Structures are given as structure tokens and as C-alpha cells.
Amino acid sequence: MADELRRDFAPPQVDVEEAGRAMEQFARGHSTEGRRVVLVTSGGTKVPLESRTVRFLDNFSSGRRGAASAEYFMQAGYAVIFLHRHRSLFPYNRRYSNQNWLDNLRLVPASGGEEPRLEAELNRLPGIVEVLEDYKRVKETGRMMALEYHTLSDYLHLLLAAARALNPLGSSAMFYLAAAVSDFYIPASEMPEHKIQSSSGPLQITMKMVPKMLSPLVKDWAPKAFVISFKLETDPQILIEKSRKALATYRHQVVVANILDTLRSYVMVVTNTEEAKLSVSDEEERSGIEIEDKIINDLTSRHTNFIEQTSSKQGL
Ligand code: PMT
Q1: pTM, whole model, 2 decimals?
Q2: Fewer CB under 10 Å: which end of the chain, C or N?
Q3: What strand order describes the sheet that includes 254-259?
Q4: Ligand 1 center to residue 25 CA distance, Å?
Q5: Is the CB of 13 under 6 A from ligand 1?
Q6: From CA 159, how far away is CA 177, in angstroms rounded?
Q7: Closest C-alpha among 214, 171, 178, 176 to residue 305
Q8: Model confidence over 56-112: pLDDT tens digits?
Q9: Ligand 1 pocket: which of 59, 61, 219 to mutate (most atoms within 8 A of CB)
Q10: Does the Cβ of 212 fall within 6 Å of ligand 1?
């Protein structure tokens, strides 16, 4: 797969080797301290149509699922590698991402030889004190490592590097693949260099299938890890069937299935033996409860069972 990535995709725009080393060090350090480590992937992917890219194919993912989940994983004691798309939502500051920060600040002019100061309008920033405390604690304890990707190629290379870094942790590593990864791309060798000209008439492009990373991830890259994939559909009728098919094909542990219209309030956690419904009522939503809190609560206890089962199989 590493050869395939090098051959078919444009070179990554990030230093993958350096990122791989940093992830290895992060994973080893936390594992030595007895902490589980999860890779959270988050956000959409951008697929260029030209090599000097003017146009690209994108998808709707905002990164909210991944960013919120990263927070709940840390609350549950995990160390998190947060692999996210450039400018998608980020843990903690996601809560204020739709605000104009200039409206939240007040200028205290310089006086008596003091520099001017900035104060925040607390009433415009609900929950900011707790959020800031959590964020600072995470920074001080080094519990999260954030890595950015820009293109599909970056994502694929970084996922492989992350899998290599987490593989030594065995069953205590988790992969939580919430990113909405493109299924289609144009191979580097077939991509026009310059901007596609509209004077040539309607655009017809043929895109190739992106190889499913779940397959080598589960089989070769991190075969002992606890792996969660996501399935998004718009038609509820096919959701469970497609989730079961994914489990049978890739042989990983869990699919979190969601429908576009009810993304924030309802998911199904699908395993080989059950389908667990998780939902957030209107009342819960009003009191600030998020579906990701319930998802992570469910998955961390499944992870515990998985680790115990793995150890007992090995006679530990
Ligand atoms: O970011 P938000 O706005 O909060 O939205 C969250 C979400 C809807 C994007 C998220 O909850 C979600 O469902 N993500 C997965 C979207 C999806 O259906 O992906 P997929 O069917 O293309 O892939 C299914 C799984 O295979 C995914 O876990 C993906 O990581 C994996 N995959 C996909 C493509 C590929 N080439 N290799 C893969 O391994």
C-alpha cells in the first residue's frame, strides 16, 4: 500500500516522516504511563482536479464529530492523536467557532504607564471558564497531539504513519475513523497540470476509486488494535445492511452508523453481535448533552472488554 500511495497520489504536503516519529514518541510515552491512545480522524478531504490546483472536489464534513469526540476521549483518560483537516473544527475552541472574536473582546486603553489590555465579554462566551480550564489542562499534560492534513494524499500517508506508530501498543490502541474520506480521486499521472479551461466545453472527468484504508489497517498495519469506522448514509433503509457489510469485509470491531438528517442526535453502534441505539433527546440537547459524549462512553467500555478478551485469549 505504501508503494501504491507513492505511485498514484501527489506527494504529501506535510513531512510524514517527522509526523510519524512524533506520533511514535507520543504513543510510547503515554502507553508507558499506562494510558490508552486513540487516533481520531476528523473532517472532510479535498481532492484536487488540477495539479496547480484551482478546483477540487470536497464534502460537507465540518469536523464537529471528531473534535467533540477528542474532548470526550480525553475526559475518559485517553491520550489523543487528532488527525484533522486544515481549518476544520478543533477541540475546545469548536464551541466558539461561529463567532467573530473581535466582538468578544473589550479594549482597556493604556493608562498610568500600563500597556493597553484586552478583556473578554464573558456573557458572549457561555461556558468559557470551564472550556479554557480543560484546554489548558490538556496542553499542560500533553494529552493531545494535533496533526493537520490538507489533501487526500496527506490524509492517506498520515494514516499509515499513525498506524505504524500505534501498532506496538496492541489492543490498547484505538482507531476512531470519523473523517469523511473521499472515495474518488484522479491519479497524479492523469491530472492536468493547469487550470481546466471552460472554453473546452462541459467537463467530463473519470475518477479512480481510493483504496479502502480499513483493509490494510486491520489486516497488516495494526492488527491487534480496536478499530471503529463510521458509515454515513442519507437513506436509513440501507444503513444497517451497509454497516454489517463493512464489518464482514474489513473484520474490524465496530461501525458507528449515522444518517445525514439526524447526525447530531442519533447513531447506531453496530458490532457483529448487536446494534445499540444512542440518542440525545431535545431536553438533553437543551441541557448541553452531546451525542459524542454517549458514543465515547459506549466505545470506551467496549474497548475495555476488547482488551480483557484479548488478554485472556493470550492467557495473560
Ligand atoms: O464532521 P461532521 O460534520 O461532524 O460529520 C461527521 C461525519 C458524518 C463525517 C461522521 O460521523 C461520519 O460518518 N464519517 C464517515 C463518513 C463516511 O461514510 O465515510 P465512508 O463511507 O466513505 O467510509 C466509511 C469508513 O471507511 C470511514 O470510517 C472511513 O474512515 C473509511 N475509509 C474511507 C475511504 C477510504 N478510502 N478508506 C477508508 O478506510
Answers
A1: 0.95
A2: C
A3: 144-149, 79-85, 37-42, 173-177, 226-233, 254-259, 266-270, 275-279
A4: 27
A5: no
A6: 10
A7: 171
A8: 999 999 999 999 999 999 999 999 999 999 999 999 999 999 999 999 999 999 998
A9: 61
A10: yes
